[in-house]
Amino acid sequence: MTVFEKITIAKAINESLRASMEADPKVLVMGEDVGKLGGVFRVTDGLQKDFGEERVIDTPLAESGIVGTAIGMALRGYRPVVEIQFDGFVFPAYDQIVTQLAKMHARALGKVKVPVVIRIPYAGGIGAVEHHSESPEALFAHVAGLKIVSPSNSSDAYWMLQQAIAGDDPVIYFEPKRRYHDKSRLDTESIPDPLHKARVTRTGSDLTLAAYGPMVKVCQDVANVAAEEGKSIEIVDLRSLSPIDFDTVQSSVQKTGRLVVVHEAPVFFGAGAEIAARITERCFYHLEAPVLRVGGFHSPYPPSRLEDEYLPGLDRVLDAVDRALAY
User: In angstroms, rounded to a whole number, what is the distance separating the alpha carbons of residues 275 and 198?
Assistant: First the structure.
């Protein structure tokens, strides 16, 4: 048994890839600079040295070709794990993902499987240039045939990636890049939650905050501040966006009577809209206030000097909490 009392999310993903590759020789890692460099965030550091260039493959700068090649390899029995270097670079591969990868299983009437995992470092907060801070999760969650997940801590980063790799469905695995160096506990022998199960990470009685990926930590900070003001906040880490575990959210809202959904992506047509609609349908007679949403603005991601104004932070989420509690 290996217990890391403090391990970064980036290191947990590295350990997860290593465990998956050791367990199954058909697992391959491929992407731009994933080999000799170890990835721009060093998430794949050391893997090519230990597993060789045939299993950790440095690819050309061609996202459509990378994903298309991974689809072909999956059809031949491999389990490729593709890294898209930055969120904004995924769009050249969008056609391959939504037209081929997502539909291959249905097109073949279930006779073929395409176990491809696409790792995407996503969202902002790192002071990057254009195309390096996007949150495209809603685009992919809208596409039937894809599973969409995003961890918020080291333990989930480790287990959810292995679960995604071991499954037979294509999975988009969104990694919150500004949390790469956040540290938390990891027990590599623990029993993980199901891949698409949401988790209540803090219990409360006055209001539910639902979030995923980079915003979970913000919600934790909000709950701490609210507690100093005598407000009891429950936090649901969604973990998965396709499918969404509405049952866990519903159970929480039936207890608290209020829900605020928080994500970094724009509020307009974002994941929060679907959650708000579903929970309103399911919990209409339990709600004490409208379901509120907090997220980015419906605008291109701004230059880095303005991203603190764009990103949902402590004050913006606390304002939504206060508005919900005022009803």
Answer: 13
0.70 exceeded by pTM: yes
Backbone angles phi, psi at 187, to 5 degrees: -110, 110
Residues 6+ apart with CB under 8 A from 271: 137, 138, 141, 212, 241, 244, 261, 263, 265
Beta-bridge mates of residue 262: 294
Partnered with residue 183 across adjacent β-strands are 8
In three-state secondary structure terms, 19 is helix
State residue 15's pLDDT score: 97
Task: Kindly list the catalytic residues.
Answer: 132
Q: What is the pLDDT of residues 173-187, one digit of tens each?
A: 999 999 999 999 999
8 Å CB contact between 200 and 248: yes
H helices of the chain, in order, are 9-23, 47-51, 63-75, 94-95, 104-107, 137-141, 154-166, 215-228, 246-256, 271-283, 307-310, 314-325
Residues near 301 by beta carbon (within 8 Å), at least 6 away in sequence: 124, 130, 133, 134, 307, 310
